[in-house]
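Quick one:
INPUT:
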C-alpha cells in the first residue's frame, strides 16, 4: 500500500498499475481535472503540481511535472494541486495576482503557472526577477506572453508566504511523520506488476536480487518518458527516493559525496560552494520542475551521450560507489561508460553515491551549448579541469558530451595541452587534437562539423575566461 495526503485527505492505494503517473491519477482516478496535460514529457509545465515533504522538521514545497512523476513516489508526502489553493471561495494570493495583472488568456497553461508561482511564494519570500524567471522557466505559455505573468509573480515580493498551508503546517508535518513511521515502505501491486518503495540500501539490494529486470526510479525524469512516450509497461519499478543511504550528502576535506537519489535542487547549494562552475551548469539543466526530481545518479546511470553531468564528473575524476547484493565496489567514472547507453553497472547493481574529489589547485570551466538557454538539451557540453602553474598547464582532464556515443574524455587534446602555456597560441595543438579524439555525428541538435568547431572554440573561451576577459569569451560563444 502507498499512503499520501491529497491536500488534507489521507489517500491509501494498493492496486494501481505501478506505472500510473500522478497526472493520470489526478485526471482519471481522482477526477480532479484542474491539472492539465500538454506534452506528457516534462517540457511544458501545464501539469505542474506541488509536492510537500517533511525534511528536517520542516515542510519543503517542490513544484514538479505530474506527467512524469510516478504515483508510488508520493508515499509519505503531500500532493497539492490547483484545486487546493482557494480557501472558502477566496483566491490564493498567487491566483489573485494573476487575475490582477492579467496573466491568463486561454487559461490552459495557467494552473501550471499558478502551482510554480505557489512553490516560489512558499520558498522565496521576496523573489528577484532572476529568481522569478528561474522559478517559471519550466512553464510555457502560448498566448498571454510572459510579461504579465512575470509581473504577477514579482507583485508577490515582500508578501510573507503566509496562507492556509502555513496555518496548518505543524498539523501536516505531524500527519506526514506519523504516516511514514506507521508505514515506512510502500508498494503498489496490480496484475503481478509492482512499484516498491524501500527505505534502506539493504532492502533495495535485496529487491534487485529478487527482480533483476526491475527498473530503478530516482526522479523518473528520464524513465517516465519510456512509459509516456514509448508506451513501455515495466513489470517492476523500485523507487530510490526514500532510501536513506542514497539521500545523504557528505562533505569532507577530500571529497563531496552525493547520494545517487539526491535531487539536483538539494545538491545545488554544496555544489555551488565547492564547484561553482558545476552548479551554474545545473541552472541550465532542464527546468526547476526537472531539477526538483532529477538526480545525478539517474543522469549517470542513464548514460546518455548528451547528459550534462557526466562530462563534468569525467573532468573531476569522480568515483561511483556501486552495490550489488552484499558486494560493494568503486568504479572510476573513466571505466563506467562502455558504449551507447551501456555501462559497467552489474546486473542487480545500483549506484549508492557519487564521490567528487576536491583538488584545490584545479580550475573548473563548464560550458553547455544548446539552442535555448533554459530547459534545453546540449548540442555540446564541455568540462575542463585544469591545473595551471605559472601560466602553463600542468594537468588537464577534459570531459565532453555530444561528441561521441558516450560521454568521453578528450585524451589526445589533454596530452596536447599539458606543458603548454594556457594562451590562444598554446591551445592550438589541443584544438587540432580534438578532431582526433572525436568524430561527432549530425543529428537534430547539430551537425558534426558544428559540434567539433564549438568544442574547439570552447577551449579558446576557457583561455579568455582564465584571463577574465568575459567580453571576448562571450564573443567566442557567438561565433560558436
Ligand atoms: C523536460 C526535461 C528536460 C531535461 N533536460 C535535461 C538537461 O538539460 N540535461 C540533462 O542532462 N538531462 C536532462 N533531462 C533528463 C533527465 O532529467 C536527467 O537525465 C536526470 O538527471 C535523470 O535523473 P532521474 O533521477 O530523473 O533519473 P530516472 O529517470 O529516475 O532514471 C534514469 C535511469 O537511471 C537509472 N537509475 C536511477 N537511479 C539509479 C541508481 N541509483 N543506480 C543505478 N541506476 C539508476 C534508472 O533505472 C533509469 O534507467 C531532461 C528531462 C526532461 C524530462
Ligand atoms: S504535460 Fe507538459 S510538462 Fe507535463
Ligand atoms: S494563457 Fe493560453 S497558453 Fe498561456
Amino acid at each position: 500500500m502507498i499512503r499520501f495526503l491529497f491536500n488534507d485527505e489521507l489517500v491509501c492505494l494498493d492496486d494501481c498499475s505501478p506505472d500510473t503517473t500522478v497526472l493520470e491519477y489526478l485526471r482519471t482516478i481522482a477526477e480532479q481535472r484542474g491539472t492539465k496535460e500538454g506534452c506528457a514529457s516534462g517540457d511544458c509545465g501545464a501539469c505542474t503540481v506541488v509536492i510537500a515533504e517533511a525534511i528536517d522538521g520542516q515542510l519543503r514545497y517542490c513544484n514538479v511535472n505530474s506527467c512524469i512523476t510516478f504515483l508510488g513516489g508520493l508515499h509519505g508526502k503531500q500532493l497539492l494541486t490547483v484545486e487546493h489553493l482557494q480557501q472558502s471561495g477566496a483566491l490564493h494570493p498567487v491566483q489573485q495576482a494573476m487575475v490582477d495583472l492579467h496573466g491568463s488568456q486561454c487559461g490552459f497553461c495557467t494552473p501550471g503557472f499558478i502551482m510554480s508561482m505557489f512553490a516560489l511564494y512558499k520558498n522565496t519570500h521576496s523573489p528577484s526577477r532572476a529568481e522569478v524567471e528561474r522559478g517559471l522557466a519550466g512553464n510555457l505559455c502560448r498566448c498571454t506572453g510572459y510579461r504579465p505573468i512575470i509581473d504577477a509573480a514579482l507583485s508577490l515580493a515582500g508578501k510573507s508566504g503566509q496562507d492556509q498551508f502555513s496555518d496548518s503546517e505543524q498539523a501536516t508535518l505531524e500527519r506526514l511523520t506519523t504516516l511514514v513511521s506507521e508505514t515506512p515502505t510502500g508498494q503498489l501491486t496490480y496484475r503481478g506488476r509492482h512499484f516498491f518503495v524501500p527505505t534502506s540500501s539493504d532492502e533495495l539490494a535485496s529487491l534487485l536480487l529478487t527482480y533483476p529486470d526491475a527498473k530503478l526510479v530516482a526522479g523518473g525524469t528520464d524513465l517516465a518518458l519510456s512509459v509516456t512516450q514509448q508506451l513501455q509497461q515495466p513489470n517492476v519499478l523500485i523507487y530510490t527516493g526514500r532510501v536513506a543511504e542514497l539521500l545523504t550528502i557528505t562533505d569532507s576535506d577530500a571529497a563531496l559525496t552525493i547520494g545517487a537519489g539526491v535531487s539536483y535542487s538539494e545538491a545545488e547549494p554544496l555544489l555551488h560552494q565547492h564547484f561553482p562552475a558545476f552548479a551554474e551548469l545545473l541552472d541550465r539543466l532542464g527546468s526547476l520542475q526537472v531539477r526538483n526530481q532529477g538526480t545525478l545518479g539517474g543522469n549517470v546511470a542513464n548514460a546518455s551521450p548528451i547528459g550534462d553531468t557526466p562530462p563534468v564528473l569525467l573532468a573531476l575524476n569522480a568515483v561511483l560507489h556501486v552495490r550489488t547484493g552484499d558486494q560493494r565496489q568503486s568504479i572510476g567514472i573513466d571505466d563506467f561508460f562502455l558504449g551507447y547507453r551501456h555501462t559497467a553497472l552489474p546486473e542487480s547493481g545500483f549506484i549508492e553515491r557519487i564521490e567528487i574529489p576536491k583538488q584545490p589547485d584545479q580550475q573548473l570551466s563548464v560550458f553547455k551549448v544548446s539552442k535555448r538557454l533554459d530547459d534545453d538539451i546540449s548540442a555540446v557540453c564541455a568540462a575542463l579541469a585544469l591545473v595551471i602553474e605559472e601560466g602553463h598547464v600542468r594537468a588537464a582532464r577534459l570531459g565532453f558530451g555530444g561528441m561521441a556515443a558516450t560521454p568521453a574524455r578528450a585524451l589526445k587534446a589533454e596530452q596536447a595541452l599539458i606543458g603548454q602555456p594556457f594562451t590562444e597560441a598554446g591551445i592550438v595543438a589541443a584544438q587540432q587534437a580534438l578532431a582526433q579524439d572525436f568524430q561527432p555525428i549530425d543529428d537534430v541538435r547539430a551537425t558534426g562539423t558544428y559540434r567539433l568547431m564549438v568544442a574547439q572554440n570552447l577551449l579558446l573561451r576557457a583561455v579568455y575566461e582564465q584571463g577574465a576577459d568575459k567580453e571576448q569569451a562571450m564573443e567566442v560563444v557567438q561565433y560558436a
